[in-house]
Amino acid sequence: MKRLLNYFTYGLLVMFVLVGCAKQPTQDMDAAQKALEDAKTVGSAKYTPEDTKKVEDSLTAALDEIKAQDSKFALTRNYDKAKQMLAQAKADAEKLKADIAVKKEEAKKNALAGQGEASTSVKEAKALLAKAPMGKGARADIEALKGDIKGLEDSMPELQKLIESEDYGVAIDKAKAIKEKADGVSSQIKEAMEKVMGKKAGAK
Question: 3-class SS at 123?
Answer without folding.
Answer: helix
